[in-house]
Design brief:
Elements lengths: L1 H26 L4 H37 L3 H49 L3 H7 L7 H41 L1 E6 L2 E6 L1 H21 L2 H24 L1 H7 L2 H53 L5 H18 L1 H4 L1 H29 L4 E6 L4 E10 L32 E10 L4 E5 L6 H9 L5 E8 L4 E4 L8 E2 H6 L9 H10 L12 E2 L1 H4 L2 H15 L3 E5 L7 H14 L4 E5 L11 E6 L2 E5 L3
Parallel strand pairs: 3-7, 6-12, 6-13, 8-11, 11-12
Antiparallel strand pairs: 1-2, 4-5, 4-7, 9-10, 13-14
Helix pairs in contact: 1-12, 2-3, 2-5, 2-10, 3-5, 4-12, 5-10, 5-12, 6-9, 6-10, 7-9, 7-12, 9-10, 15-17
Length: 609
């Protein structure tokens, strides 16, 4: 029993520390003055609400005594008092809610901005995805969990403050109204002062202990439910994003099976939540119902003995209810606390994963990127490896607690036993065009990622010229949802290139039908064919004019004539650019000055015939 208590105390301290690590940055940020001002006003309104409750408690005594004494003048006077007390209650409730929502959106906006920046910085979002067991559903953690964290933190902390202030405001009143309770034990009379305070304390303590025993599994179940819901939603989004490919394969049945399996996880976990919530709700409802009649039962002997009037009985019952409710805050808020704990755990693990991914990129990069002392791009003893088969817990960010979760283990981006894929010792000269080829699975695309600085597994050094303006074209270009102008100009802003310039490049790349549709908003990745998407990517090249261009199967969806035209256009319009292509078509060799073929884990020069 003692060991379990110590364990629970340790876990509570750890949880509160993790919560503070998540919450503190906002309250010391550049928005702190507005945040603290809003919080001060909200707390002031909260205290005002408690003060009105004290006034209303006194009103109960006077109002019900006027009824008992049939004093009509006092009755109407108290009715008038009730009107202005109620008006103040309404005003405080309205503005407390309004200012609370304002503080919520300011806090959530600040947190969302910081989490987005950290997630996108140093390409942490990519490294988390590359890891074999990366953080699940970061979109949900940013979009939903941050909102839940802010709302629950304010609601529960302000609720706890209100409970504490209410307790100290009413415990004195209840102590005075309770009087002394004489109890005879073996001929000895023991007097218990303020006995209803002790009854309320005992009632609340027993309720809290039983609530903890009944509802203990709820935090773990809520954690799992959030994860299962996000997995199901993500699989639905994947279907929408890949609708054509699934339809061509007629893959509806396996996709439907996946949906049913993931939704089955939701249902199974939900049934467990239902069982736990049923027990907890049954206990809480009974606890609340008994609390309504309990103070009258305890105070009835003094009323029937004539020691107090009807107004005193009602005032005592109200004061007992306020004290008991304050002491039972844990019972009433248990479900919300379980949800809050699950949210904090998810955000803590997400934050630790981002920190570890960024640390792996900045503090201990395995493949080092450096500035070349010459105009050459060199791969110096570069070994490209596959991701490690195993994983280890990710260390927490500096100042954060290390979290061990029962349902989720975050991977390490550090290599444990990486498998070498290929080795490269190559020099690329400015202005030349080089083709890198090799059999499927030999590591061509992985080498492309190494050149882009995305791949963290391996060792060696990649040196780029100081004045390099690189641009990387993957096989499947990224097309943002929005206007065609934004899709063509990506990643630059839409106002960086003129309309005439954009239209001319679209025509040059064989897309004249798109030239007059720059303001049309669409899901262009679904609207355009793979070949059109690749030609649009070449239009980006002409607009941005890089001096180092890297292409990974960037014309694989184009016909031979279009492919030849695109490469010829690059040589004509970007004569000084270095072009490094990755591809498997033999015809590509004729568009390049030299070729490198990946064989048996090495890059070997391939002479042109």
């Amino acid at each position: 029993m003692v060991a379990r208590f110590k364990h629970n105390l340790h876990m509570t301290k750890l949880f509160l520390h993790e919560m503070w690590v998540l919450a503190r940055p906002y309250w010391v940020s550049e928005d702190r003055w507005a945040a603290w001002a809003l919080l001060a006003v909200i707390v002031g309104l909260n205290l005002g609400y408690v003060y009105l409750s004290v006034i209303f408690n006194d009103w109960n005594n006077l109002f019900f005594n006027s009824l008992q004494n049939k004093n009509s003048d006092e009755f109407f006077h108290q009715m008038f008092r009730f009107c202005w007390i109620a008006a103040l209650f309404i005003g405080i409730a309205v503005y407390q809610m309004y200012l609370n929502l304002m503080l919520q959106i300011r806090w959530r906006r600040w947190l969302t901005e910081r989490y987005l920046e950290d997630w996108m910085a140093d390409q942490a979002y990519y490294r988390l995805q590359v890891a074999s067991q990366g953080t699940d559903n970061p979109d949900q953690r940013i979009a939903d969990d941050l909102q839940s964290f802010v709302e629950a933190t304010l609601r529960l902390s302000l609720g706890l403050l209100s409970a504490v202030v209410t307790l100290f405001s009413f415990v004195g009143i209840l102590w005075t109204l309770s009087g002394d309770l004489p109890i005879s034990l073996g001929g000895v009379t023991v007097t218990i002062p303020g006995y209803m305070v002790w009854v309320a304390l005992l009632y609340a303590v027993l309720g809290s202990l039983l609530t903890q025993m009944i509802g203990r599994p709820l935090a773990r179940l809520n954690f799992q439910q959030q994860r299962f819901e996000a997995d199901f939603r993500f699989s639905l989004v994947r279907l929408r994003e890949n609708a054509e490919g699934i339809a061509l394969y007629q893959g509806e049945r396996p996709e439907l099976a996946t949906f049913r399996d993931r939704f089955g996880n939701i249902v199974g976990n939900w049934l467990a939540i239902m069982t736990c919530r049923k027990r907890l709700t049954g206990f809480n409802t009974g606890y609340t119902q008994v609390a309504i009649i309990f103070p009258y039962l305890v105070a009835a002997p003094r009323y029937f003995s004539g020691a107090m009037e009807l107004g005193g009985l009602m005032q005592t019952a109200d004061a007992f209810g306020q004290v008991q409710s304050s002491l039972s805050w844990f019972v009433d808020a248990y479900v919300s606390l379980a949800d809050w704990r699950a949210t904090v755990n998810r955000l803590t693990s997400f934050r630790a994963s981002i920190a570890a991914a960024r640390a792996a990129a900045l503090l201990n990069p395995e493949i080092i990127r450096a500035v070349s002392p010459s105009q050459l791009l060199t791969l110096d003893a570069v070994t490209v490896a596959l991701p490690p088969a195993g994983s280890a817990p990710i260390p927490a960010a500096p100042g954060a607690a290390t979290t061990t979760l029962p349902t989720e283990t975050e991977p390490s981006l550090e290599s444990q036993a990486s498998t070498p894929l290929l080795r490269a010792e190559v020099v690329f000269k400015p202005g030349e065009s080089v083709l890198i080829s090799g059999p499927s699975g030999s590591g061509k695309t992985t080498l492309f990622r190494v050149l882009a600085g995305l791949w963290p597994y391996g060792n060696g050094r990649v040196c780029l010229p100081a004045d390099a303006r690189p641009l990387f074209l993957p096989q499947k270009p990224y097309l943002p949802i929005g206007s065609l102008r934004a899709a063509v100009c990506f990643p630059s802003s839409v106002d960086q290139f003129s309309t005439a310039e954009i239209n001319e490049t679209l025509v040059a790349c064989g897309l004249p039908a798109l030239a007059g549709r720059l303001e049309q908003i669409d899901h262009w990745a679904q609207r355009l064919s793979p070949g059109e998407q690749q030609r649009l990517a070449f239009a980006r090249v002409l607009l941005h004019r890089p001096n180092w261009l890297f292409l990974d199967e960037a014309t694989a969806a184009c016909d031979p004539a279009t492919e030849a035209a695109l490469y010829g256009m690059l040589r004509k319009r970007l004569p000084e650019a270095t072009i490094i292509s990755i591809g498997h078509r033999a015809i590509l060799a004729s568009y390049h000055d030299r070729c490198l073929e990946i064989q048996k884990g090495e890059t070997i020069p391939w002479a042109l015939g």
